[in-house]
Amino acid sequence: MEKKLDVHRKQNIRSDKIFKLAATIAGSFVLVIIALMIFQLISESYPIWEAEGLGFIIGTDWNAVEGRESFGALPYIAGTLVTAALAMAIGVPLSIGIAMFISDAPAKIGGPLGFLVELLAAVPSIIYGLWGLLVFRLYFQDWVEKPLHNLFGDSIFLFSGTPFGLDIITASVILAIMIIPTVSSVSREIMKAVPQQQREAAYMLGATKWEMFKLAVFPYSKTGLIGASILGLGRAVGETMAVTMLIGNATGISAFPSSFFKPSQTMSSIIANEFVEASPASLHLPALIGVALVLLLIAIVINVIAHLLVTRMMKVKEGAINN
Amino acid sequence: MTTTNEKRQEYRALFKNNVKKRLLVDKIVHIIIFAFVIIAIIPLGSILVEVFKNGITAISYEFLTATPGSIGSGEGGIGPAIQGTLIIIGLASLIGVPIGVMSGIFLSEYGDNRLARNVRFFNDVFMEFPSIVLGIFAFLVIVLILGHFSVWAGAFALALIMFPIVARTTEESLKMVPVTYREAGTALGLKKWVITFRIVISAAKGGMITGILLAVSRIGGETAPLIMTILGSSQFFSSMDVPMDALPLRIWRLSLLPYESSQLQGWGAALVLIFVIIGINLAVRYYFGNGNGMIRKLIKQGGLVKK
After folding, report:
1. Is A296 within 8 Å of B129 when comparing Cβ atoms?
2. What is the mean predicted confidence (pLDDT) over A34-55?
3. How confident is the model at residue A16 (pLDDT cuts 50, 70, 90)?
C-alpha cells in the first residue's frame, strides 16, 4: 500500500513537471521570438550595412535601379518622427481633455462616452485609411489646407507646397485620431488612480474644477500621463496602412519632411509600398529590412520607456490605495 | 482690532474679482474640454456613417460571393477576400491561442519569479511592436525559406500579434479566480495541471473567451503583415502555397484604384469588415464586459488598437 502511494506521488510530480515545463516554454516564447526577430533582421539587412555603412542612416538617396543602387533612410526616419510628433501635438491634448471629462463626468455620461471612444480603437487601420483617403482628405483640403496655404504659403516655409491632401499634415491628423483612444483610455485609468482625498482636499481649499485638476490630479499623475502619451507615440510610429494611403509616398530626398503640405514617406509606409517588388538578390530587400530594423529599435525604446513610466505610476497607485 | 467698513468693501471687491476670474477660467476650460470630446466623436461618427452609407449600395449576394471582376468594371465581388480572412483568422487562432493560453497560465500560476516578470514586461512591449515588422519576420523565416508566398506565413504573423493579447487576458482572468478554488482542488488530491484545466480555467472561461475574441477582432483588420506573406489574389483558396486574398488587402487594393466603382466596392468590403469587427466588440462587451473590469484592463495593456 505504501509503495503504491509512493509511485502515485512520483507520477504526480512528473506530470506536473511536464505541465510546468510546457507553461514555461510557452511563456518564454515571447522572449525567444523577440531575440530571433532582432537577430534575423540584423543578419538579413547585413548587406546594406556593409555597402552603405552609417550612410544608410544619414543618407538621403533612394535608388533601386540596378547598377546605380544607393539607399539612405534618413528622409523616412525623419518622416516617421515628424508625423508621429505632429500626431502627438494634436492628439495628446485632445486625449487628456477627454480623459479629464470622462474621469469627472457622472457614470451615466462618462461610461457610454468612454465606450464610444474605445470603439474608435476597434476600427481597423485600413478603414481609417479608406475614410481618410476618400472622405476626410477632401474636407481637410478645402477647409484647412487651402486657407492656411493662401494665408501663409508665401511667407512661412512650413505652409509652402501644393495643398493636395496627400501630405504630412493629413497623415498626422489621421494618426492623431488613431492614438486618441489609446492615450485617453490609459490617461483616464491613471486619473482614476488619483486618491479621492486629494481631490476633496483641493475642493476644500475652494478650488474650482480646473484648479482641482491643476492642484490635485496633474501633479499626482504626471508620470503616468507622460507614459500614456509615449504609448501613443509608439503606436503612431508603428502605424502603417492609414499613413501609407495618405502620406503621398515620395521617395529619396524629396520625401524629406520640410513643409506640412509636402508628400513624404515614413519607415513603415516605404516598407508597405516597396517590399513586394524588392528583389531578394539586390540590395533593395536588405535596405527595406534595414529600415524595418531601425523602426523596430525605435519602437522598442519608446515602448520600454512608456511601460516603465505607466507601471511605475500604477505601483504608486496601489501603494496609495493600500495605505 | 475692528476692520473699518471701507477695508471690508475693499476685501470684498478683491475677493469678487478673484473669484470672477477663476470662475471664468474654469468655464473656458470646461468649454474647451467639451469641444475636445465633440472633436473626438466626430471622426467615429463620420467613419461609421460613410462606411454604412457607401457600403450598403455595393452589398449584394453576388458581391459577397463572386470573385473580383476585371479592374474598374465594378463587377464581381469579394468572395475570395471573405473566405481568405476566415481561413487566416482560423489558422492564426490555431497557432496563437494555445501558445497564448499556456503563456497566460505560466504568468498566472507560476508567475512570481524573475523570468515571469520579464515575460510579462516583454509581452506588453511585444504587443506594441509595429505589425509590419512582424510581417517581415514571417516573410524572412517562412516565405524566403520556402521560396514562395504562403498562407502559413500570414497565419504565423497574425498569430504573433494574437498570442500576447491572449496571454495577458488569460493571466488577468485566471488571477481573478479565488485561490480557495485551487486549494479545494489540492485538498482533493488533484494534480496541479488537472486543477488548472478543470477548475481554474472553467471558472475563468468568460474572461478568456473575451480575450480571444478581442484578439480575433484585432487581427481581422490587420493589413500590413499580410502584404508580404499572403500577398493577395483574386482567386478562391486553392492551396497553402499560393497567394491568398483577405478583406483588408482587398480594401487596400480597391481604394487605390482611380475608378469610382472600385472605390464603392472598397466601401462595401469595409462595411463587411467593420460589421464583423464592431459586432464582435459589441457582443463581447455586452456579454462579458460588465462587472469584472476585464476590458478596461485589456485596453490599459494596449491590446485593442489596430496598427
Report:
1. yes
2. 92
3. confident
Q: Which amino acid is at A212?
A: M
Q: Clarify whether residues B140 and B269 are in a common domain.
A: yes
Judge whether residue B24 has pLDDT over 80: yes
For B189, which residue in chain A has the nearest alpha carbon? A12
Is B32 within 8 Å of A234 when comparing Cβ atoms? no
- Tell me if B55 is assigned to some domain: no
Q: How far apart are CA B176 and CA A94, in angstroms?
A: 34
pLDDT band at B297 (very low <50, low <70, confident <90, very high): low
Q: Do B278 and A119 touch (CB under 8 A)?
A: yes
Identify all chain A residues contacting B122, using CB atoms and an 8 Å cutoff: 30-31, 34
Q: Check whether residue B245 and residue B295 sit in a common domain.
A: yes
Residues B172 and B292 placed together within one structural domain of the fold:
yes
Examine the domain organization and report whether B289 and B153 are in the same domain. Answer: yes
* Domain CATH for B211: 1.10.3720.10
Tally the residues of chain A: 323
Asked if residue B185 is part of any domain, the answer here is yes
* Residue type (1 letter), B67: T
What is the least distance, in Å, from the CA of B164 to any CA of chain A? 8
**Would the pLDDT of A293 be above 90?**
yes
Q: Is residue B47 one of the residues assigned to a domain? A: no
> Which of B29, B128, B217 lies nearest to residue A210, judging by beta carbons?
B29
- Give the separation between CA A171 and CA A145, rounded to whole angstroms: 13
Residues of B in contact with A125 (CB under 8 A): 221-224, 306-307
Answer whether residue B56 is part of any domain: no
Q: Are A46 and A26 in contact (CB under 8 A)?
A: no
Cβ contact, residue pair A307, B160, below 8 Å:
no
Q: pLDDT tens across B178-230, in order?
A: 899 999 998 998 888 899 999 999 888 888 888 898 899 889 989 999 999 99
Helices A218-238, B131-138: inter-axial angle, 10-degree rounding: 40
- The reply to whether B37 and B88 lie within a common domain is no
Q: Which residue of A9, A12, A118, A123 to mutate against B (max B Cβ within 10 Å)?
A: A123
Contact indicator for A74, A58 with CB cutoff of 8 Å: yes
Per-residue pLDDT, averaged over A64-89, amounts to 89
Separation between Cα atoms, residue B36 and residue A183, nearest integer Å = 14
Are B32 and B113 part of one and the same domain? Answer: no
Are B299 and A125 inside 8 Å of each other by CB?
no
Quick count: other Cβ atoms within 10 Å of Cβ B95?
17
Give the count of domains, chain B.
2
Residues B34 and B88 in one domain: no
Q: What is the pLDDT of residues A109-138, one digit of tens each?
A: 888 888 888 788 888 999 999 999 999 999
Range of the domain at B96: 61-301
- Residue ranges of B 263-302 with Cβ closer than 8 A to chain A: 263, 266-267, 270, 273-274, 277-278, 281, 285, 295-296, 299-300, 302
**Nine-digit cell at A210?**
480646473
